[in-house]
């Protein structure tokens, strides 16, 4: 890697991190930015921001503002507004997502002339096999490099943006990155600085949860929904979700999503329970009774959908809840679950018998919904 021809001072660039797998994008951004990450909007709209600072000779500082952009039908217009003013794109791809690139650029209104770094999660051989197809779309020859870490990728992007001459710019290019270097990640939203529930309050909450017939494990209350298990911490009122889809998937990432119901615990009053304890009870009851506002339902729905979903062959298709399959009627990639399953049959990763059973079940779901 060569040092670009740059001048003294400070340069700030907006860089988009896009892809089909939001937790994977967020994992990349988190690794790149370290503790300079803002995830306050992740649970609601899927947006995460990060900052990377790089130092060059001659007292030059380069600051990259990283924006992990959500990519879905529901947020398409909002996502396009987040892309304004960007100078470079980091595209996170997996081997089965090459065909989705043109549609992704179109839906986010991205220019093919923008400095582009394609981060291919896989081997160099797989990246080289995909390079020809991407070259045709970008209309430029993209060299393939193997990289050891995310810091090296960020340096390539910064060098490109600092280069005064386009002929010296290292971008566009494709880099192959091992999946263990870029694990999926969903940020934990910090709790407000209010006192946690007392031991006496936790005991009272536990008693109420038992009366509702809910399962208690240590200081957490489990609410089991078709979409997964939601754990409400009786000490802090924080909610995390273990999606049912992870149990049905052949991958082992086992995601845990944070669910936000309300952002404040003031305005409540009781003789025996404080404001946070009452809020905790309200959350438990609302989840158990499924009396939820629309934004919470959307969070649960989004946690249920994963573009990496690969049905576990050990679990019969008929045992997969309809709620899981309904979430894949049209995935974020633009492909239906049935189309993705057909591609797996063609690749030899799914049997025709399982595919036909899935097709029949989806047809039955369509018939029941239409009636």
Short description:
Helix content is 36%, strand content 20%. It has helices at 22-33, 42-45, 76-82, 101-107, 124-138, 150-162, 199-211, 244-247, 275-289, 294-304, 322-326, 337-346, 352-370, and strands at residues 9-19, 37-38, 48-56, 60-68, 88-93, 115-121, 144-146, 173-177, 215-217, 220-225, 228-233, 239-243, 257-258. It starts with 8 loop residues before the first strand and ends with a helix.
Explain how this protein is built.
With 371 residues, the protein is of the alpha/beta class. It folds into three domains: 9-181, Rossmann fold; 199-304, no CATH class; 317-370, no CATH class. 36% of the residues lie in helices and 20% in strands. The protein is built from 13 helices and 13 strands. The longest helix has 19 residues, at 352-370.
């Amino acid at each position: 890697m060569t040092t670009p021809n740059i001048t003294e001072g400070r340069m700030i660039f907006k860089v988009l991190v896009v892809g089909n797998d939001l937790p994977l994008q967020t994992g990349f951004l988190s690794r790149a930015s370290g503790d300079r990450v803002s995830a306050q909007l992740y649970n609601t709209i899927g947006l995460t921001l990060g900052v990377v600072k790089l130092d060059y000779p001659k007292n030059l500082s380069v600051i990259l503002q990283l924006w992990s952009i959500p990519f879905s039908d529901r947020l398409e217009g909002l996502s396009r507004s987040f892309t304004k003013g960007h100078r470079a794109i980091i595209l996170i791809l997996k081997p089965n997502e090459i065909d989705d690139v043109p549609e992704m650029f179109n839906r986010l209104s991205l220019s093919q002339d923008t400095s582009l770094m394609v981060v291919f999660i896989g081997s160099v051989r797989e990246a080289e096999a995909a390079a020809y197809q991407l070259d045709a779309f970008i209309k430029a020859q993209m060299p393939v490099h193997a990289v050891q870490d995310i810091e090296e990728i960020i340096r390539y992007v910064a060098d490109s943006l600092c280069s005064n001459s386009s002929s010296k710019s290292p971008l566009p290019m494709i880099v192959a990155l091992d999946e263990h270097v870029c694990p999926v990640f969903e940020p934990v939203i910090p709790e407000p600085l209010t006192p946690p529930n007392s031991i006496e309050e936790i005991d009272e909450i536990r008693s109420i949860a038992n009366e509702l017939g809910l399962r208690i494990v240590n200081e957490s209350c489990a609410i089991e929904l078709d979409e997964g298990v939601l754990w409400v911490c009786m000490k802090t009122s924080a909610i995390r979700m273990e999606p049912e889809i992870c149990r049905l998937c052949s991958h082992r990432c086992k995601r845990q999503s944070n669910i936000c119901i309300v952002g404040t615990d003031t305005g409540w009053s009781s003789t025996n329970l404080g404001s946070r304890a009452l809020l905790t009870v309200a959350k438990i009851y609302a989840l158990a009774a499924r009396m939820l506002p629309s934004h919470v339902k959307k969070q649960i729905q989004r946690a249920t959908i994963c573009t990496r979903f690969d049905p576990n062959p050990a679990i019969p298709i008929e045992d997969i809840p309809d709620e899981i399959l309904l979430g894949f009627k049209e995935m974020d990639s633009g492909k239906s679950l049935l189309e993705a399953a057909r591609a797996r049959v063609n690749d030899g990763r799914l049997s025709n018998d399982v595919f036909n059973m899935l097709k029949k079940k989806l047809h039955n779901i369509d018939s029941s919904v239409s009636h």
